[in-house]
Protein: LacI family transcriptional regulator
Amino acid sequence: MKSNKAPTIKDVAKKSHTGIATVSRVINNSGKVSENTKNRILKAIDELGYTPNLHARSLSSKKGNSISLVIPDMGEFYGILYKYIEKNLAQMGYRVIVFPLVDEISLAKIKNKADLIYQTDAVFISSLSVRKIFKDKIPQKKLILVDSKDDRFDSIYIDNYDIGVKAAEYLLSKSKTTEKYLLISFKELENDFTSHVFKYRDEGFLDTMKKHKKRVKKIDADLYWDGGYEAMKKYSSKNSINKSKVNVFATCDMLGFGVRNFFNEKNLLPNKNYNLIGVDDIPISKVIGLTTIHQPLELMADNAVGIFKKFLENKEKKITHKKIESKLIVRET
Amino acid sequence: MKSNKAPTIKDVAKKSHTGIATVSRVINNSGKVSENTKNRILKAIDELGYTPNLHARSLSSKKGNSISLVIPDMGEFYGILYKYIEKNLAQMGYRVIVFPLVDEISLAKIKNKADLIYQTDAVFISSLSVRKIFKDKIPQKKLILVDSKDDRFDSIYIDNYDIGVKAAEYLLSKSKTTEKYLLISFKELENDFTSHVFKYRDEGFLDTMKKHKKRVKKIDADLYWDGGYEAMKKYSSKNSINKSKVNVFATCDMLGFGVRNFFNEKNLLPNKNYNLIGVDDIPISKVIGLTTIHQPLELMADNAVGIFKKFLENKEKKITHKKIESKLIVRET
DNA sequence: CTGAAAGCGCTTACAG
DNA sequence: CTGAAAGCGCTTACAG
Structure:
């Protein structure tokens, strides 16, 4: 009867009548090993059902072969980002470990210095503020920001102020003088999760509208699928929505979704009764014909991985800041 | 000038004039340590910015303090499941590492015996077939199936055949003799990702309809936000949709979403012109008023973690099969 | 091409 | 309450 414990490299060595160093070589495909011994070892590995212990490997090699990806929530948007990053890194033999900051518990875990996140070779942080998350105890790791910016760290980012400007210009191009302008946005709470992306989008939009002497009514909405709907409902209860065209900037597609729903329900038509633009270009936006501002996730992922690669190669200390252009996608609304 | 390397337990011991065993004790809060030495050690840890090496810890303690969660994709649905599992496990000091099988690459990684997944203390598999994923090389780990069933492993599952039955009964209760019945479903490819959930839902629905002598038109759809829409468009190009009421079972809410969109666009009304039921009860379903069959994710997560807890306690070998009841949620459609 | 040995940074009896 | 020492399963010079 076999022992219950998982077989180790020692067991493999014994069974194949070699030393552990040689076994290690064939496992890692490093160094020269004769065909004959190699086959003996492979056979033993197979028969034993041997699996290398990653902890031992990492401990002795000083490499984790993994990176962390910190994201604000686990939804479709970040799923896409994950996919692009994973695709790149998998080829390099790296694992990407996801850390969704879904609640206070997961935030607390990350702040604990004994957490897994501190064992990975680099930390990719998406859409979140390093300062807020880690406070003063920033991990002594390679940090790469994706979709946000911090002077102290490598950053791949999009100019959110510019997004607001683009949204304003789109709506202005579609409208005449006497129309109404609405800004439906999420009012971020000042806590550890705050990213300020909404704030910047708001500002870009508001500033541009002011420049064109347009008055804008701002409405706070919940960051949820019906957030935009409820905001519009509230607005329409005090303002007429049929008299003149309404132009709406929803600062993310999730909010845009709700707004679109609202207009549909009232049988109001895009271009005629309203215009609407969102941000993100999540998959569902295409389906509902929502005009939006696209965030090039693939490009961001590629750039982030590129920085990581360079880091691995020559440990260069220079910090890279790469700005990615967002793109207007005109659809029905 | 300080050394570049990360401080180890040895450095802490030296700085606090103790042994590494004692340092280990205060880090892990185990055993008795006098207040005085404890404070000295804590101070040293803080000054050094010491972080325990998890690989070393796992290697010597034989515990990973983590579990794997394998999911078919990274979207809102599994995000919710993750959240519930994580909430439970975090309190126990465990990390949950997500393995989204988004493409062939990620599948290949999992099959590699050297993968991270084999280092965790247990593997939770959601909505996927163990047989298909791991083939004959099933990991010698505690496997817990969430939302699927396998006689060989602990399973928390929902009866998908029964879901089909429930959907049929709902539509029958809303309809009269002469009406039309549509089944809009995803035709699973026979590959490693196949879970057969759709197949069982189809069967439960079809069998029940047959029992009631109703003819059903089945339409294959893409598993995407506009899958249901396209399916309906195809159907309506050859069949009238206005004459008599149409009753549709979309085998998941994502498909139901598209169907609902289609009817909206045609200005057709629920209960009057059509009835529609989906499955899953994803957040967006509530917003669009989609009648659906709810999957109790929280309950499933709790049960799965419960099994894991028992496993940790007494290493019991008995396999648990727990069936969870799905629940009809009636909304507008 | 191959193997014995040191060492990675911890935990855990063990002895005091 | 405390510390020296063995051991976890690997990788990597080093010597052959």
User: Anything to note?
Assistant: Chain A touches chain B through 56 residues (CB under 8 Å). Chain A has 13 helices and twelve strands. The first helix of chain A runs from residue 9 to 15. The radius of gyration of chain A is 26 Å.
